[in-house]
Amino acid sequence: MLKDVFIGLSQNQFLTSAAKKYGLKLGAQTVVAGTNIEQTIDSIRELNAQGISCTVDNLGEFVFEKEEALKAKDSILEVIESIHANGVDAHISLKPTQIGLDIDYDFCYENLREIVAAASKYDMHINIDMEDYGHVQPSYDLIETLLKEYGNIGIVIQAYFFRAEDDIQKHKDLRLRIVKGAYKEPAEYAYQTREEIDANFIQLIEYHLLHGKFTSIATHDHNIINHVIEFVKENNIPREKFEFQMLYGFRKDMQLNLARQGYNFCTYVPFGDDWYGYFMRRLAERPQNLNLVAKQVFNKRTNTAIGIFAGAFVLGRLTSKGKSK
């Protein structure tokens, strides 16, 4: 039920607009590296200084206007140039819907190809984030076509999907980020319980560590991290073949500890003002994430504002149900 609430909040346009307007006052700076590229580069430098690499996400998705998609593409291209110009250790993560997948497939492909080509000039990696089930196969289609020209592409495998095992075997020669999954998916496509998702998550990680090219293990779950550490020791898997990933602002002490222990570590660095839906889905993915940032994000002013926003959302849902009766 809590997951459904967070998913609902992530899709609420009123709350999204309010969060864009009042984001910094609500504490967004603790989960977003900056609202512009300059701030984000500074945040990346700080992480690099502590032995942590970064993957940068220009926040935004589910775009339905070409002008907005082109603006997002240009912003990503600007980030690529800025990463190169500043010599920071970072690469790009992006969502196909942000650059036009819901508008026109060919239009999206041309935008994505331009981005991948620009990054390829600097030997920079581009990671294609997977979204909800309806966008998964079109995203794979884009990737399969791009792989005929470029090799600087990686993808995300979402462990809650039944198809994940087939997908990871098919793409084992790619750099893969393995995640649990953050969207609400029907039972015909995806596992529904935490126990099932965790079990498949571990199985996928182990498979790719043994058979794959490079594995990015994206989790804040210390139990799974400890399991992976023991697994790589038992199977003599070199540290050069994998990295741990966490989100910017989450479990900072653990991020630093893993980096200090000599493990490759990459922080997922989102930037921009379209942070609200992203943050709510992180809570939906694992409600315990709320505890990881609560002390950093929430204060009296923040709690009051979020309470008002959430109350408006709940009231809207109740009103909607009342009208439907």
Topology:
Blueprint: H1 2-10, H2 13-22, H3 37-48, E1 53-58, H4 66-86, E2 90-94, H5 105-120, E3 126-128, H6 133-146, E4 153-158, H7 164-170, E5 175-179, H8 194-211, E6 214-218, H9 222-234, E7 242-247, H10 252-260, E8 265-271, H11 276-285, H12 289-297, H13 300-324
Parallel strand pairs: 1-2, 1-8, 2-3, 3-4, 4-5, 5-6, 6-7, 7-8
Helix pairs in contact: 1-11, 4-5, 7-8, 8-9
Short description:
With 325 residues, the chain is α/β, with parallel strands linked by helices. It has helices at 2-10, 13-22, 37-48, 66-86, 105-120, 133-146, 164-170, 194-211, 222-234, 252-260, 276-285, 289-297, 300-324, and strands at residues 53-58, 90-94, 126-128, 153-158, 175-179, 214-218, 242-247, 265-271.
Give the biggest sheet.
Answer: 8 strands, parallel, barrel
Count helical runs: 13
Order of helices and strands: HHHEHEHEHEHEHEHEHEHHH
Overall average pLDDT: 84
Q: State the end-to-end CA separation.
A: 22 Å
Q: Compute the number of strand runs.
A: 8
Question: What structural category arises from helix and sheet content?
Answer: alpha/beta
**Integer-rounded radius of gyration:** 19 Å
Shape assignment: globular
Strand order in the largest sheet: 1-2-3-4-5-6-7-8
Helix content: 40-55%
Strand content: 5-15%
Unreliable residue runs: 295-325
